[in-house]
Amino acid sequence: MEKDILILAVESSCDETAAAVVKNGRDVRSNVISSQIELHKLYGGVVPEIASRKHIEKINQVIEEALAQAEVTLDDIDAIGVTYGPGLVGALLVGVAEAKAIAYAKGLPLVGVHHIEGHISANYVEHPELEPPFLCLVVSGGHTHLVCVRDYGKYEILGRTRDDAAGEAFDKVARAIGLGYPGGPKIDRLSREGNPDAIFFPRAHIEDAPCDFSFSGVKSAVLNYINGCQMKGETYSQADVAASFQKAVTDVLTEHSMQAVRETGLKKFAIAGGVASNSSLRASLEEACRKEGVRFYYPSPIFCTDNAAMIGAAAYYEYLAGTRHGWDLNAVPNLKLGERQV
Ligand code: KG4
Ligand code: ZN
Question: Whose CA is nearest to atom 8 of ligand 1?
Answer without folding.
Answer: 274
